[in-house]
C-alpha cells in the first residue's frame, strides 16, 4: 500500500460549493459581498508595479508590519467593527468594546487563513493525551483537525434554544483535563455568548488548559473576548480577514493571545512553513488594517441587512435564530432544508444546507448586498408558496 495509515483515516472538510457551471448569487460560504477597501487594491497595484523584484524574494517570515497594523486596528475598533465610532479618519471603540490595555504586535500571530492558524493551534495545544471539548454544532473544521492530529474530542450537545451548554462543557473539560474550543458567535447557529459569560467560563475552567475562542464573526455584533486576555493567560482568540475584512481570497487569519502562546504557535509554524503569508498578502492585509472606517461601514451594512432579513424570514413563517454574524440560520415548518436549498438553487442562488443529523431542517443564509437579498426574498417567496 502506497499511502500511510494516517491518510486512510482522514475525513476532509467540505466547504460551501463553488460551482463553475453557472453564475450563482453566492450566499453559501459566509463570504463578504463587498470588495476589500479601494486602498487595498491600490496598495497591491503599487507593490507589484513599484517592486516587482520583491515577488522574487522571500517575504518577511514574521510579518512584522502586518502585525503592527493589526494591533492598531484592534485598538481602534475594540475588536468589533460594526459598533466602532467613526469620525472622519478617526476611529474609536464603542464604550462596550473598549480594551483595558493596548494590544501590542507581539500578541499577534498571522497565518494562511484562520483554517491554517487553527491547525497550528490544535497542533500546539492538543495531542492524543490532551483532548478538547467543543459544542456538538460548531465550525465543522474542528473535528477534522481532531482526526488529522489524532486528538480525542468530546462534543457537547447544544441546549434546547441552540445556545452553548457552558456548564456541561466545563464539566467534561474538568473530567478529562481537556481544553475547550468554540466559535463565538457560534456557527452555524449565529448565537453568541456575552463577554461576561465567557469570563465566567474561564474562571471555572482550569488555567492549565488552553481555552480557544474563534471570533470569525464577532465584528458583526458579538462581544470580543480580547479584553479578557489581561485576566487569563490560557486564552487564545482566533480571528480572520475572510468575513468582516472582505478578504476570503487573501487567506489571512490571526490569533490574539499572550506573547508566550504566540511564540509557541510560531514555533509550530516555523517547523512546517517559514513563510505562510506571501508578500502580496502582507501588503494587502496591512492596507486593510489601515482603513478601518471602510470596514466599519461594510460591517454595518451587512448587520443592517441581516436584521431586515431576519424580519422577512419571520414574516414568512420561518423559525430564525437571532444572529450576531453575517448569516442567518433558519427553518420553515412546511419545507425541508434540503428542498428549500434546491428550490433556491434552481432560481440561481446558493444557500447552505447541512445534511448533518440534528440541523438538517435548517438552511444557513449568508448576508449579501441589499440587491442580492432582494433576489433571495423573491426566490424564497416562490419556494415557500408552492
Ligand atoms: C470562516 C471561518 C473560519 C475560516 O476562515 P479562513 O480564515 O477563511 O480560513 C474559521 N472559523 C470559523 C468559525 C469560520 O466560520
From TrEMBL:
Annotated signal sequence range: none
Swiss-Prot/TrEMBL catalytic activity: L-histidinol phosphate + 2-oxoglutarate = 3-(imidazol-4-yl)-2-oxopropyl phosphate + L-glutamate
SUPFAM superfamilies: PLP-dependent transferases
Keyword annotations from UniProtKB, A to Z: Amino-acid biosynthesis, Aminotransferase, Histidine biosynthesis, Pyridoxal phosphate, Transferase
Assembly, per entry: Homodimer.
Family according to the record: Belongs to the class-II pyridoxal-phosphate-dependent aminotransferase family. Histidinol-phosphate aminotransferase subfamily.
PANTHER family according to UniProt: HISTIDINOL-PHOSPHATE AMINOTRANSFERASE, HISTIDINOL-PHOSPHATE AMINOTRANSFERASE 2
Protein name: Histidinol-phosphate aminotransferase
The organism of origin for this protein: Treponema bryantii
Gene from which this protein is expressed: hisC
Amino acid at each position: 500500500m502506497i499511502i500511510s495509515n494516517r491518510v486512510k483515516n482522514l475525513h476532509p472538510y467540505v466547504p460551501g460549493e463553488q460551482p463553475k457551471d453557472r453564475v450563482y448569487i453566492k450566499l453559501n460560504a459566509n463570504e463578504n459581498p463587498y470588495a476589500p477597501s479601494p486602498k487595498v487594491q491600490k496598495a497591491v497595484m503599487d507593490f507589484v508595479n513599484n517592486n516587482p523584484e520583491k515577488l522574487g524574494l522571500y517575504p518577511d517570515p514574521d510579518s512584522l508590519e502586518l502585525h503592527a497594523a493589526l494591533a492598531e486596528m484592534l485598538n481602534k475598533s475594540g475588536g468589533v467593527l460594526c459598533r466602532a465610532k467613526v469620525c472622519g479618519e478617526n476611529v474609536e471603540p464603542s464604550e462596550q468594546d473598549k480594551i483595558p490595555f493596548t494590544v501590542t504586535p507581539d500578541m499577534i500571530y498571522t497565518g494562511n487563513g484562520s483554517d491554517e492558524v487553527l491547525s497550528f493551534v490544535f497542533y500546539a495545544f492538543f495531542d492524543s493525551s490532551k483532548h478538547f471539548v467543543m459544542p456538538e454544532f460548531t465550525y465543522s473544521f474542528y473535528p477534522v483537525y481532531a482526526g488529522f492530529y489524532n486528538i480525542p474530542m468530546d462534543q457537547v450537545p447544544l441546549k434546547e434554544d441552540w445556545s452553548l451548554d457552558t456548564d456541561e462543557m466545563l464539566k467534561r473539560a474538568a473530567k478529562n483535563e481537556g481544553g475547550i474550543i468554540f466559535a463565538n458567535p457560534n456557527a452555524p447557529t449565529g448565537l453568541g455568548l456575552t463577554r461576561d459569560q465567557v469570563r465566567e467560563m474561564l474562571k471555572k475552567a482550569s488555567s492549565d488548559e488552553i481555552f480557544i475562542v474563534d471570533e470569525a464573526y464577532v465584528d458583526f455584533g458579538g462581544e470580543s473576548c480580547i479584553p479578557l486576555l489581561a485576566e487569563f493567560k490560557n486564552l487564545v482568540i482566533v480571528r480572520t480577514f475572510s468575513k468582516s475584512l472582505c478578504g476570503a481570497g487573501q487567506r489571512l487569519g490571526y490569533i490574539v493571545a499572550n506573547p508566550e502562546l504566540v511564540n509557541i504557535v510560531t514555533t509550530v509554524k516555523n517547523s512546517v512553513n517559514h513563510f505562510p503569508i506571501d508578500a502580496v498578502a502582507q501588503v494587502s492585509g496591512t492596507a486593510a488594517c489601515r482603513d478601518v472606517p471602510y470596514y466599519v461601514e461594510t460591517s454595518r451594512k451587512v448587520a443592517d441587512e441581516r436584521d431586515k432579513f431576519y424580519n422577512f424570514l419571520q414574516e414568512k413563517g420561518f423559525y430564525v435564530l437571532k444572529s450576531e454574524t453575517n448569516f442567518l440560520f433558519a427553518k420553515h415548518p412546511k419545507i425541508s432544508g434540503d428542498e428549500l436549498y434546491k428550490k433556491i438553487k434552481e432560481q440561481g442562488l446558493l444557500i447552505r444546507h447541512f445534511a448533518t443529523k440534528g440541523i438538517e431542517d435548517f438552511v444557513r443564509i449568508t448576508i449579501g448586498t441589499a440587491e442580492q437579498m432582494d433576489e433571495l426574498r423573491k426566490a424564497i417567496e416562490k419556494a415557500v408558496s408552492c
